[in-house]
Amino acid sequence: MATRSGLLKWYPEFFDKYGAFTVFDLLVDYIKSGRIKLDKSRFPMRATYHDPCNYGRKSEEKFGHGYYDEARFVLDNCLEDWVELFPTRANDFCCGGGGGALLTPYQDARVHYARRKMEQIKRTGAELLVLPCHSCHGQIKAVKETYGMPDLEVKYLWEVVAEALVIE
Amino acid sequence: MGTDTETKRKQSAVKEKAPLRPVESPMDICLGCGTCSAGCAMTGVDGFDPRKIVRKVLMGRDAELVGSKLPWICTMCGKCEHACPMGINIVNMIRTLRGMVDRDKVPGMIQKGVELCLETGNNLGLPAEDFTFIIEDVAAEMAEEPGFEGFTVPIDKKGANLLHTLHNKLVNTQNEDLVHWWKIFHMAGEDFTIPSENWEGVNWGLFSGDDESMKIVVGRIVEHMDRLEIKNLMYPE
Amino acid sequence: MTEEMTSKADRISTPVNIVVAGAGITGIRTAIDFAASGYKVLLVDKAMHGGGILTRLDHQFPNDHCGMCRMLPMIDRGTDKETCLRRGLFHENILTCYSTEVVAVDGKAGDLAVNLSVVPTGVDKTRCSGCGECERVCPVMVPDHFNGDWVNRKAIFLPTPHLSPDSRVIDWQACTSCGACVEVCPTHAITLNGEREQVELKGVYAVVLARGVNLYDPALTDVYGYGVLPNVVTATDFERIMSSSGPYQGEMMRPSDGKPIKKIAWIQCVGSRNVMIGADFCSSVCCMFAVKEAILAKQKMGKESDAVIFYMDMRTFGRDFQRYKDEAENVKGIRFVRMRVHSIQLHENTDDLLISYVNKDGEQVDEIFDLVVLSTGRKKDFLTCDWAEADGVFQVDRLPGFKDIADSVVGASAISEQVLRMIHQQNLKPDKNESDHSPDISFVERRPSYITVLCDCNTSLSNPIDFQKLENTIHALSSGHQILRVEQACSKEGWQTIRKAIMDGQANRCLIMACDAAVDFSRKREFTNELGFPVSFVDLLDVVSLVRRFQEGEDATDTVSKEVFMRLNRLGTRSYASPLKQAQVKTVLVIGGGPAGLQAASVLAAHGFTVKLVEKTDRLGGKLAQIEESDLKQHVEKMLAGVNKNPQIDVYLETEVIQTSGRPGVCMTKLKHASGETRIIHHGATILATGGKEVDTSASVVSESHERIITGFDMDAMLKANDSDLVKGPVSTVVMIQCVGSRQEPNNYCSRICCLKSLKNAIRIKDLHPETDIYIFYRDIMTYGNSEILYTEARKKGVLFIPFDTDNPPRINMASGAIIIEGDDPFLGEPVQIKADWLALATGVMPNDVSDLKQVFSFETTQDGFIQEADSKWRPVDTERVGVFVCGLARTPARLDEVLLEANAAAQRVLTLLEKDHTSYSPVTARVRNAICSVCGICIEVCPYQARYMDEDRRVVHVDNLACQGCGTCAAECPNNATVLGEYEDHGVMSMIESSL
Predict the structure, then answer these.
(1) What is the nearest CA distance from C349 to chain A, expressed in angstroms?
(2) Testing the interface with C: which of A91, A92, A94, A121 to mutate, by most C Cβ within 10 A?
């Protein structure tokens, strides 16, 4: 988010010289071109996916494209049984860890913020939560115990891909 | 306004500075409908309420907001804006307010991270040799796993296809999460490289509303690309 | 229509004078206007049914019932009472045709070629008996969109639940052409060919485009979960949930799990008032729609239920709307929460819905609901239409927008008037059926001779009827009764057989035992016209419906015999009186010389009428000086000049109306000049355009006057004067307070114009002095429709709006000599104090005093002194007194453009009444048997149509046969049975009842 908007704002000529790709672009490309092969059976459990604000509605707002479908394509290739949260995509709830919230002293507020997100996850009955954002990852791991979900596994999207890699 | 009957309404600096959303609604267009407040998970916590903040900005009461912790409670997630019928740029309003705070009054670790990054090239203040050591150590361990034999991390590789930066927490306390991308790159046969210095993948100027620092850190990415003649950038965050 | 015509395209190819495209309320209204004047109308709609959105609604505010039928002509209508518009529109001059589009219009107004593209219904209406076998055997099931997709329907179906049963159509998209319906149809009425047909009509005088607007689709946004959460429905979906003809038969069940609904939230402004989706407009009707639904739902849900409306401004801008809303809140217990809901969430692991909002204390509150109703507004744009601007096309609306029923009806009649003006100016004539339908008197006056027709379709009934026994019963009545068995009484062959039998047998009373299909009113009229019978001498017994209440297989003979016996008895007691004809005076009395009166007078003169324009004061023009829209001002000035020069318009200044007598079409009225001189004028109709005035209610909020505390009207005037302090400046701070003395008792109605005035004033001040701070204290900003842009513009320019409740209005403090306004900012939860250079109080309007005229014309007034219309939704410019019409501020607060439109609509109502040289009235009216009348006057009081009056000289009660609608209220109330109603004379009804025992 910061780098992409910064490049657009201050170094627009960058895009004439170099290519630039999001994590989603890379993963989708690797899978579609067959450069990596994935084995879904590594993740048989019920899983769900969290759309981070930065890759979702804020990308949509700032860059005209939200990375919703790319993530879902990757998930379809790694997970046996994953379900959507409600609400999802552009209207998804923030985990409470955005905007540098993990770095401020207002930690009670941050934990309180997560209640809606955690209710959403609980409703799906998922054992595994997949997400593609360092802040969200840190926040959910930090609050899951408070919300009675100590056993919820939290993994990066690329972590799931790495673990589903077929070793050749 | 407030209870001071004599003063004329001040012009808000926030209103002037905050960029507009695509519909180009000035903040004045706010209906006071409450969509933002109803949708924000933080409304009511420590007096936080997006509608109130917009209203105070419209009344020119910037100082009151800049001096409070309200701008820092917001996670800038943009859920408020998503349903705002008037297209008010609430996230940018918050970031602009943050930027107006004296740098020594920025709460928590954000400012410290920004300063260390400007000084040392990463938010941890980690020297280059320590960084190289950690990276090589983790890579060596990964190379012992079946399928990844012989894996090494190419550092400062000239002419590589892809530039890869790192979130400082992976280098710091969460080393085990470094390997995921490396494994994917290895299997995909990706020609990537990591810079030995200025490898920081986050840019906290975004959070602190500090455009100057943010520009410097983005500039380092451009430098890497130029210096190492790399073809493509993998966006850091 | 001739008998050979079967296909839909053929049916259209009859002479058509006017094509109306769009069969919503507006289209129906114009079609009826033209038809009433004798023009042949083709009413088409793209949809498979007419009636538009209203077909999905069972109830309308403010009286919470239907009432569409009140649009039908009140004079010269059939004697039959089958006039429910939801069953269909039956008028001899109107041909309705659905799934049909106008594709091109060429030529000049008065002589147009109109190309139509017609999708066949697949069912030949002239053959269909409405038995429904086709629908029963159809194997296709598709979601029934009419009922919110909650239930399924067949591919051959009735597009709306109330339609008469021969209106089934085939949905070609769903139809698999399996042929099951064709095979089973007993009358061979079905053809499986859904190909579009092209029809060209020539010599059409005009095309009316009444396209309406479509509803916003809330699935376009993700915040409400519409289409994902089954318990989130739109307001029109919800009408179906509540309807007894809906998917749950009116049980309050929610779609997801059938759980009883106990708690409902309404979310306003879905798709409206949202610049992010390009919807900078208000959809005008959704607020009242939601209040109505909440009231009905609360009634249905019973105790322990909750209905909450989330809103930004409750736009109760109609004359009676504020009191309706207040009653909903204070008496019916509907909760109103001022908050635009962000999203609808799920509650835990249930289908319950959770809504978060911020309460008055600034806390976030979660509430759980069984169902959420989205008050969806209109779509942004009109449907595209290439020929909208072609010559001879009259568009009802030039801007898209939703309208309340009353405003739609007014707009429609105003267009009818314009169309007829063009037709009159070109001297074009209606394409009438010139044949005289008066019954053959010699035939009718003979003593009754009966024929009973038994349709053989009846043998396919699920219940056996012993026809022999039935015949014996009929013969037992008298030996002269004839009995005829025919195959398919509803078919053209069937008709011919019946007609022949009647002619041969010299019968003059006829009872046809058939099914619903033959009972169609329009057919009955056609049939009796051909026979030369009065309509009331033929009775149709729907035997299918009659036996439906029996168990399958149970013998229904006795019941049917009784019914037949009863009906024949009643036929025997019927008598016939020729309709009375009366010449009409083509002069119109217009009372009031303001914009409404001037408009009505000019328009009527253009149609060739003579107008007597009476004005109380010494000049015409009303409040011309205050009109701010320059185009409208020019229009009124032009009219003023025209009226003074027009030889067809006689102007009487300083004159009042003191007495009137006569009946619609022929009235005599006495005028009195200020000098005391009186004169009598003769006229056929009257328009009341007595207008209104500003009401200065500032005393209700300020105890003493102050030169810088002014009304919104004053501020407007100051801003127009270039040398005023406000224009010259400097101006530091301006405060405006809305609804001063309005929208609370005793003046509990919205004046409609004060919000617009304040916004325009504020924008003008900001344009003159951008640095000026402007604060507007308001209750609800009433920028309905497209005027929302003014509100948006004022905010964009930096005007700050502060809402307040009636229990906590802003206070004005002048103790220090300065003007200080104290109030509360509910958004911040803080008190505010503003020192103002200028304070403008937005005061409203009230009607001029009409108590003298009320005595003369005996119309009703509302508690606020507005003239009461006959029906606030369906007949907005009629009064209960036939031939007396009303328009403008006399009736309701309105903007000037709306006032002018009302004047056109009132003129149209006069046209309908006076266009024919003669009028006739139906024989089903009440009459008085003077011999036993005690002249108590009860009947005069109870008559809802003011059709009765006392002849003081002769001490007898008279009935105005034109005004009488045959409702029977008088007969029911008369203590002496001295009042009788046409064919329902007591002995007739009694013999019917006796024979049924």
Answers:
(1) 6
(2) A91
CATH of domain C1-119+196-213+382-438: 3.50.50.60
Looking at residues A9-32, what average pLDDT do you find?
96
DSSP classification of residue C861: B
For A42-88, the three-class secondary structure string (H helix, E strand, C coil) is HCCCEEEECCCCCCCHHHHHHHCCCCCHHHHHHHHHHCCEEECCCCC
Using one digit for the tens of pLDDT, what is the confidence trace for B118-164?
999 999 999 999 999 999 999 999 999 999 999 999 999 999 999 99
- Angle ∠(C430,C436,C439) on CA atoms, nearest 5: 145
CA angle, residues A159, A161, A163, in degrees to nearest 5: 70
| CATH 3.40.50 residue window(s) in chain C | 441-573
In chain B, domain spans: 13-101, 110-233
Q: Indicate the domain borders of chain A.
A: 2-164
Give yes or no for C349 touching A (CB within 8 A): yes
Q: Which CATH class is domain C696-843?
A: alpha beta
Type of residue found at B135: I
> CB-based contact (8 Å) between A86 and chain B?
no
The complex's ipTM works out to 0.95
Q: Compare all CA atoms of chain A with the CA of B105 and give the residue at the minimum distance.
A: A104
Question: Cβ separation of C222 and A91 shorter than 8 Å?
Answer: yes
As a CATH number, domain C583-693+847-918 is: 3.50.50.60
Question: pLDDT per residue over B90-128, tens digit each?
Answer: 999 999 999 999 999 999 999 999 999 999 999 999 999
Q: Which of residues 362-381 of C touch B (CB under 8 A)?
A: 362-364
The CATH superfamily label for domain C218-376 reads FAD/NAD(P)-binding domain (3.50.50.60)
CATH for the C441-573 domain, from 3.30.450, 3.10.450, 3.40.50, 1.10.3470:
3.40.50
What kind of architecture, by CATH, is found in domain C924-996?
Answer: 2-Layer Sandwich (3.30)
From residue B101, alpha-carbon distances to B64, B71, C166 in Å are: 11, 10, 76
Among the partner residues A90, A116, A119, nearest to C222 by beta-carbon distance: A90
- Residue C515, Cβ neighbours under 10 Å: how many? 27
Which chain A residue's Cα is nearest to C356? Answer: A116
Cβ of C830 within 8 Å of Cβ of B2? The answer is yes
